[in-house]
Specification:
Chain lengths: 566, 150
């Protein structure tokens, strides 16, 4: 059976991102049909709760505090305007008019009805989207650099390899029931914006001594209860061996990863308990036996690369003078450009961040109206493409400098122009106790309090690059252990308490934050954060960023002040 | 007792002999431990031989004996134990095993498609009334991104 796909003109225009073939479309259509049957069997009582749990999780469906939660894949964060409009439609029709962007570049709906989920999936399939393997103990959505293909420090665009990995991971028959979830991230730039050292497998495109480009492979990183920084298992891997090497790691993990305790089941524990040398040897032995059978043909790589060819940039975009004029005349615009846009490899273009961290809105949330409007902006200003970032913001990656002023004005109206990208109010925050059945403590209320305390933009900008990450439980969805300031909600006899850490980072110099001291009460968290920032302001050297200062002085100066009154 | 074998519902000729039972004539399967212990005796008997393995067993242990084994049963203690999928793949892909590989125990009929793709060609379900549906589940997808066994 071959199902033809009807490409809309809107999709056909997006020739610079991967377009489904008939095979891709058939596969997700058949997955929808399969999930519909599974849901019907469950509702008729033909399969157990336990069985349906595994089947629905593998398709992104959780049963949460109030309702099911459906997590839709944003493949390596890349979306087009038609897909964004579909998300708006789903938010309006099946949910409470909003959705949530996650740290793994996915999209969550918090209020769908279980019986309607197959219909939602059918709608998603119409725009080449799905929820396959966004949850469960399987190979998850591959994440990547949100500035892939446009940043100045790129060695090679990672997205074609992400797509190759997406296809390889999707419905992989041998690795659908792993000991625990498994996440892969790919970075192609010198600056790691994809937190690759904190993934089960991290891949870096690197150049070897001969000038060829291949992968440095890291394994065993991860957050959650036992945060561990990944180690290099293969300093250089030829591109043609990408899939065979991944398969070798996965087979060893599938066979030998612990299944007796879910908190010790991630690959990081296997690597730690067996030791990297022994683990690497097992992988190498397995790899040598399979690598010739799974070689990636260079034609295949080139064909996928062609789908990510750069859009047709205007060659004289940098001749525009209005941009410089607006920067001079409008301080608010200049501030937004400084914080919420980034350099672009094409002259006269910039990447524009849409802040999903407006002071009074839950971090990462977007309404249907905002989604529709952003789709229009993407069509008008950025080749119909939108990206999600692992800090829960969106990006229009290809905006002409001449269009930035107009874009900023419209984003301001949409409340998506808060100039706080990379600052203390650009918090990563999980949904917390308000929505999540795993959470021990609330997060959104505290995020709002911190926002109110830091509402002076000049002060916020003076503090500069501070990454605050806050999770409502040990599972660490908001990556608190790698926040410059990490906040972890814990439950103490039914009361919400918060553990603070300092000095974490998910970038090149990845580090796990150090505990500041005993956990603190909910009404003291915001005060503690502002105290930490005050210590920084008073004791920093000239131009010294927050993280550098923490690394220089250690946690004691902060600790003394935070616990001064206790 | 009926099972699915090679995409058909057929009668099953095999019986499993538990470790504390005496060996008997006919087509019998035994645990890996029993196989190791009584291999010589088993090889002398007349019927076909099968070995039942669990997730913690290593298929390498029977690699040298595969020519004398006509059935390998992958006995699922729990459906989520994915080691069985790698065992099947290794038997076919690494050791070129040509005999029957059968899933038994607590697997789900929703798993038969993936199992068939890693080389399992027979399925003994907990409830025989599920056999027709399981048979149709073998056709859940007709497109794949990865190579399948056979």
């Amino acid at each position: 059976m071959i199902i033809g796909c009807n490409y809309s003109p809107g999709l056909a225009l997006n020739a610079h991102m991967y377009q489904y073939t008939d095979t891709d479309q058939t596969l997700i259509d058949q997955r929808v049909a399969q999930f519909r049957r599974q849901t019907e069997s469950f509702l008729k009582g033909q399969i157990s709760d336990d069985q349906f749990r595994a089947l629905r999780l593998m398709n992104g469906l959780y049963i949460q505090t109030h309702a099911p939660m459906l997590r839709v894949a944003g493949p390596y964060g890349l979306l087009n305007s038609r897909q964004i409009r579909k998300l708006a439609h789903i938010a309006r029709t099946y949910d409470k008019n909003y959705c949530h962007f996650t740290t793994r570049q996915n999209i969550q709906f918090n209020w769908p009805q279980l019986e309607k989920v197959p219909d939602i999936l059918e709608e998603l399939a119409e725009v080449q989207m799905h929820a396959i393997q966004t949850s469960g103990n399987c190979l998850r959505n591959t994440s990547s650099d949100h500035l892939a293909g446009v940043c100045l420090d790129e060695i090679e665009d990672p997205r074609p390899y992400c797509e190759i990995i997406r296809q390889w991971t999707t419905l992989h028959p041998e690795f659908a029931y792993l000991p625990r979830k498994f996440k892969i991230a790919v970075s192609g730039a010198t600056h790691d914006r994809a937190a690759t050292q904190l993934h089960d497998i991290g891949l870096h495109l690197v150049k070897n001594d001969a000038g060829e480009i291949g992968f440095r492979v890291l394994v065993g990183g991860g957050l959650g209860r036992t945060p561990i920084i990944g180690q290099v298992i293969k300093p250089y891997l030829d591109k043609k061996h990408l899939l065979s090497y991944l398969e070798a790691i996965l087979r060893i993990y599938n066979l030998f990863g612990r299944r007796d305790n879910k908190y010790k089941a991630r690959i990081k524990i296997l690597v730690k308990e067996s030791g990297m040398a022994k683990f690497a040897k097992l992988v190498e032995q397995e790899w040598l036996l399979i690598r010739d059978d799974l070689e990636l043909a260079s034609e295949r790589i080139e064909a996928i690369k062609a789908q990510f060819a750069p859009p047709s940039y205007e060659v004289d975009a940098d001749q525009d003078t209005s941009f410089a004029q607006h920067l001079l005349e409008n301080k608010a615009f200049a501030t937004w450009v400084k914080y919420n846009t980034d350099d672009h490899k094409a002259p006269g273009y910039r990447a524009a961040f849409l802040s999903l961290k407006a002071p009074d809105s839950p971090p990462g949330d977007m309404t249907d109206t905002q989604l529709d409007a952003v789709a229009d902006l993407a069509d008008r200003y950025s080749f119909s493409e939108i990206r999600s970032t692992h800090r829960q913001n969106l990006i229009l990656a290809d905006v002409k400098q001449a269009d930035l002023f107009e874009l900023w004005q419209q984003l301001t109206t949409l409340r998506l122009a808060t100039p706080n990208n990379g600052t203390a109010t650009d918090m990563i925050c999980c949904p917390g106790l308000d929505f999540c059945s795993l959470a021990n403590a609330g997060t959104i209320g505290i995020a709002q309090e911190i926002n109110e305390a830091l509402d002076d933009l000049d002060y916020l900008h003076d503090i500069g690059d501070v990454k605050i990450n806050m999770s409502g439980c040990m599972n660490g969805c908001a990556h608190q252990s790698v926040g410059h300031i990490g906040i972890l909600g814990v439950d103490k006899k039914g009361v919400e308490w918060y553990q603070l850490t300092l000095g974490g980072s998910s970038e090149n110099q990845a580090a796990i934050g150090e505990r500041l001291g005993p956990s603190i009460a909910k009404d003291q968290v915001t005060k503690a954060v502002t105290t930490i920032l005050d210590v920084y302001i008073k004791q920093r050297l000239e131009d010294e960023p927050f993280l550098d200062m923490v690394n220089r002085v250690g946690i004691n100066p902060f600790k003394e002040q935070v616990y001064a009154n206790n | 007792m009926q099972i699915i074998k090679d995409k058909q519902i057929v009668d099953d000729s095999w019986s499993y002999v538990a470790d504390d039972e005496d060996l008997k004539d006919g087509d019998i399967s035994v645990s890996l431990a029993r196989w190791k212990k009584d291999k010589q005796q088993l090889l002398k008997s007349s019927g076909k031989k099968g070995v039942r393995i669990g997730p913690a067993d290593s298929v390498e242990d029977i690699a040298a004996d595969l020519k004398n084994i006509q059935l390998i049963e992958l006995d699922f203690p729990a459906f989520a134990d994915g080691r069985m999928f790698s065992h099947a793949w290794l038997l076919r892909g690494r050791y070129n095993y040509q005999g029957e590989i059968r899933a038994t125990g607590h697997f789900m009929r929703d798993q038969v498609f993936y199992l068939s793709r890693v080389g399992v060609n027979a399925f003994s379900l907990e409830k025989t009334e599920d056999l027709p549906v399981a048979l149709s589940n073998l056709n859940d997808f007709n497109v794949n991104y990865q190579k399948s066994i056979r």
